[in-house]
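User: I'm putting together notes for a lab meeting next week and I want to include a structural view of one of the chains we've been expressing. I don't have a solved structure, so I'd like a prediction I can at least talk through. The sequence is below, exactly as it appears in our construct file.
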Amino acid sequence: MIRGLIVFICIVRSLSAIAQQENRSADTTQVLDEVTIEAFQYDRPLSEVPASIGLLQTKELERFSNTSLLSAINTVPGVRMEERSPGSYRLAIRGSSLRSPFGVRNVKVYWNGLPFTDAGGNTYLNLLDQNSFQQAEIIKGPGTSLYGAGTGGVLLLKNAPVKSGIDVSAMAGSYGLMRYTMQAKSHSDQSNIQVLYAHQQSDGYRQQTKMARDVVQTQADFLVNEKGTLSANILYADLYYQTPGALTKQQYQTDPRQARPTAGPNPGAIEQKAAVYNKTFYSGLSYDYQWNDRWSNTTGVYGSFTQFDNPAIRNVEKRVEQGMGARTNTLYIFPKGKLNFGAEYQRSFSPVKVYDNNQGQSGAMQTDDEISINTYFGFAQAEFYLPANFFLTAGASINKLNVNDIKLSDTPPRNASNNFDLVFSPRIALLNKISPYISIHASYSQGYSPPTSQELFPSTGQFNPDLKPEQGKNSEIGIRGLLFNTTFTYDVVVYNFQLNQTIVTRRLDDGAEYFVNAGKTQQRGAEIQLGWSPHLLPQSFLSNLKVWTSFTYNDYTFKNYAKDTTNYSGNKLTGIAPHIVVAGLDLNIQTGLYTNITFTYTDRIPVNDANTDYANDYFLLGARAGYKKQWQRLSLDIFGGVDNALNAKYSLGNDLNAALGRYYNAAPGINYYAGLKTGLSL
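Assistant: Thanks for the context. Below is the predicted structure for the 682-residue chain, given as structure tokens.
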């Protein structure tokens, strides 16, 4: 380890010397300093951030069809988003989807500084429209200190300031895809307001995969006085999507577009009208107050209400989820650094009723529960600006979680609870900005991730108080910078993550999932992001040219993991592709024509802990082309595109450890889309 670190430092010093010589005449305004990173409250350029951060801005978010975050987020190395069917997403940062049969779990999501993840650890990311935010920052590895104690990373979504005007867009595509949005924006010295309506629908590639979503959203900032700003986030979303169920390998090969068929006593997805109905209202207020040049505070509160109905193949689940929370952060700036400290509290209360499914209708009641969750943590983080361009960060959080379940369907009602121990989670990071063109960083953090409410109370309908939290230790080192007259960017990270009491998914023969602790896992990996963009003269034929690639290497294995009499130690981690490569070409012409081409390779994926079954590797090719023009007050973007242009047959969002080999969810074949977006500035 020491020898490798010495070699690494020698390489860095050599690169620094080359970069300084090559970039001596370069315009230093292009040196990674153009974007301010808000993760961990750094508020500094990426070149001075000692953390692994993936950044998606408007130009990255809009280079695909704009129907979901999936394509854009999968360009970030170490991050993988999957879609079992339209509207049904799964998000993993460095392998965190192992415990997510569906949905987003073990990833903390914030929207404009307030928690969007509920107290139970679940996130309805599919409620947000692509236009609900303009920037996404992804923290890879444990987000300990400022974001609690999770092991699965953090996603920060943010709205950007706007100019007054009206935007309208419409799009249509294969498999019944339709999407249209309307957005009104107002900007003045005293306020910044955005109002959005978005509708999206699709018939889906497979049987039983229709979806429809309506989103109404308001985001506003008001300058109360010269020291204070009040912000509001209001969202109402009405989401419906059908769930087709996974297929066996033979079914997948015979007809990948079919829904899960009837099998003996087990009915199929179409017969049971399997679907999800989610109506959610979310409202948040935050106040940012600047006492003076050194002291400031941001405090926010939110409330949410969700009506969630899920006719599944084996039952009908109805939940009424009520959530609330608050977060406060105080910042003190001193001459050679700054200090952040604060706290976060969340509570949820969810009556959950489970019924027999009589072809989509609720039958006899199976269980009746009331689940309440309280979670809170306090945090502190200090940053020190040291000599020789060193930046040191030291932070920690103290975390607590209480879960209680009252089973009203028992006589008399039975009460079960799990009061998890108080946990201390530290993080320390160091960065050295060797030159304006190169920096190296290293960090160590400890993560702690208690089971989510959906893991403690899975679709079996039985509360599991014996499920233990995951505990992990992560160490990483990275280098980022510029070469070749600042035209070539690179960002390289290697890490070693040791996880204890890893939570994995198990399934019964009828498809019900439950969760167990699987001993230890060792997760080693590398993440590489490269880009080349030449400096173009104003009179050039091209206005923009960028060639880029990202590479993810995952060496993830089980340790000390046995099921019954079978030892899985040494096996590859379920659901993780060892190698993923994404590459792209972005080309803009002065006339307004543009094209974005993306290529993806995903290695084969083990779909069970025994590593006896795999989802095949696959290649994807997609492209978007169009004409974009900006006049004095009017903007226009006419575009068309193709996804899966090679018509690859592949499974996305596999059902891990599925009974009877029902692993595979077929992704769409070749498909097309076309649309336009226009805006009027006021």
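A couple of points you could mention at the meeting. The first helix runs from residue 2 to 22. The domain at 2-681 is CATH 2.40.170.20 (Maltoporin; Chain A).

User: Perfect, that's what I needed.
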